[in-house]
Write a structure and sequence with these properties.
Among the domains are: about 20-115, Nucleic acid-binding proteins (OB fold (Dihydrolipoamide Acetyltransferase, E2P), Beta Barrel), CATH 2.40.50.140; about 120-275, 3-Layer(aba) Sandwich (Rossmann fold), CATH 3.40.50; about 400-453, no CATH class. The strands form 3 sheets. Strands 1-2-3-5-4 form a 5-stranded mixed β-barrel. It has a 5-stranded parallel β-sheet with strand order 7-6-8-9-10. The longest helix has about 45 residues, at about 315-355. It has 12 helices and 13 strands. By secondary structure, it is α/β, with parallel strands linked by helices.
């Protein structure tokens, strides 16, 4: 950053500037004369406003300058600066006209002395993004009801305690399987990959948590390893990455199926709470009870309709007896009408014959003989008719259920009223109700014998 500008003051001009006008002139000189550049210093008086903007002071042993980094730029930093951190910032020199103070408007920030690491991080991020490893379409859905959850981290890490505490509070019923690995140092990337491979080989969990606490970019550098990033992207088990604090970003965060701002947040994202599951279970049980009650009511209506269509045996017997009596009455009436018709025809014929014969005295004998023959024939016909009626009535009585019971047969029913038709369906000790020609009796089965084939 250079300061090569010259202010010329014409003492012959008597123009008087206001303070606002002066500050605008100076602000324009800064904008036109000073190009953006890198400044190194120590962070102090750091404040993160509710709007997301960062306000801090950058200082060294001899001087200090105010600085501001607006929210859009701050989100891309990848870490949250703290007082005492030495950083390098790329900034423009601007004037805060309201107070006449100049300040640095920061566009980029990196930890001091780590420019090469940060540039390597950005290069790897850009390359993997171009390969599609960060695409949302490749992300797998996290199981809401996992049978078990795996945790890849150091056994001595505070992140492990945070995860176990959160899981014990939210979902104590879910087993936790720990795959220990170093999370910092030169051996950390290899051990993290080995733990991830072991989890995929065993397939004993439905979700993996890759976690560790916060730290500097050197502390978190194991999670920027390219081989680890590719293993996470190729994992058969969905991976939730919770590394560092909310403002810390690593390559593992981008390739994981889900990024959590902290290890505790990672534990909260992998499963529903026990209270939520209990509430869902209660709602499901209530809905099931309602459905079951409605089904029972519908089935009860079907049973009632079916029962209304069933005719009891005694009613069926009474109905058949009534039909037999009706048939007998109709047969008797038919015979009576036939006899009356025959007699009427005979009388008519007799009258016609009598009318046609002028003198029947001479033929009295023949007439009397013919009358005798007719009478005998009629008697024989009447006897045959009566015999036929008696036979029909006898057959009707033989077919009557009442007559069947009168011959010594009985109708056997179970306790629920069902009629017994096959002895093979009975068991010893069952109580039967026997309907006889006169009354009913209860009997117990001592032995049943199936009909021979």
């Amino acid at each position: 950053m250079t300061a090569e500008f010259q202010v010329k003051i014409d003492r012959g001009v008597n123009e008087i500037l206001t303070v606002s006008q002066l500050n605008k002139v100076v602000s324009r000189l800064f904008d036109e004369s000073l190009a953006p550049g890198w400044v190194q210093g120590e962070v102090s008086n750091f404040t993160s406003a509710a709007s997301g903007h960062w306000y801090f002071t950058l200082k060294d042993e001899a001087a200090s300058v105010r600085a501001v980094m607006f929210r859009g730029r701050a989100l891309t930093t990848g870490f949250l600066p703290r007082p005492g951190d030495r950083v390098e910032v790329r900034a423009r020199v601007t004037l805060y006209e309201a107070r006449g103070e100049y300040q640095l408007q920061v566009e980029q920030m990196r930890r001091s002395g780590l420019g090469s690491l940060y540039e390597a991080f950005l290069a790897l991020k850009s390359r993997l993004a171009a390969e599609g490893l960060f695409d949302s379409a490749t992300k797998r859905e996290i199981a809401r009801l996992p049978r078990a959850v795996g945790v890849i981290t150091s056994l001595s890490a505070a992140a492990l305690r945070d995860v176990l505490t959160a899981m014990a509070r939210r979902a104590p019923h879910i087993p936790i399987i720990i795959y220990p690995a170093q999370v910092q140092g030169t051996q950390a990337p290899l051990q993290l990959r080995q733990a991830l491979a072991l989890a995929n080989e065993r397939r004993e969990v439905d979700t993996l948590l890759l976690v560790r606490g916060g730290g500097s970019i050197e502390d978190l550098w194991a999670f920027n390893d390219e081989s680890l990033a590719r293993d996470v992207a190729a994992s058969l088990i969905p991976v939730v990455c919770g590394v560092g604090h909310e403002t810390d970003f690593t390559i593992a965060d981008f390739v994981a199926d889900l990024r959590a701002p902290t290890p505790t947040a990672a534990a909260e994202l992998v499963c529903a709470t026990r209270a939520e599951l209990l509430e869902r279970t209660e709602r499901a049980a209530t809905a099931l009870s309602i459905l079951q009650q409605r089904r029972l009511e519908r089935l009860a209506q079907r049973v009632d309709r079916a029962a209304a269509g069933i005719i009891a045996p005694d009613e069926r017997l009474a109905h058949q007896s009534e039909r037999v009596r009706g048939w007998a009455f109709r047969l008797t009436g038919a015979m009576r009408k036939t006899l009356q018709a025959v007699q009427s025809r005979h009388t008519g014929l007799h009258g016609r014959f009598t009318a046609q014969l002028p003198d029947v005295s001479s033929h009295r004998y023949r007439v009397e003989r013919a009358a005798t023959v007719v009478s005998v024939t009629q008697a024989h016909a009447l006897a045959r008719r009566r015999q036929q009626i008696a036979q029909a009535e006898s057959q009707l009585r033989a077919l009557s259920p009442e007559n069947t019971l009168a011959r010594g047969y009985a109708i056997a029913r179970l306790a629920d009223g069902k009629v017994v038709r096959d002895a093979a369906t009975l068991r010893a000790g069952e109580v039967l109700t026997l309907t006889l020609a006169h009354g009913e009796v209860d009997a117990a089965v001592t032995q049943s014998r199936a009909a021979p084939p």
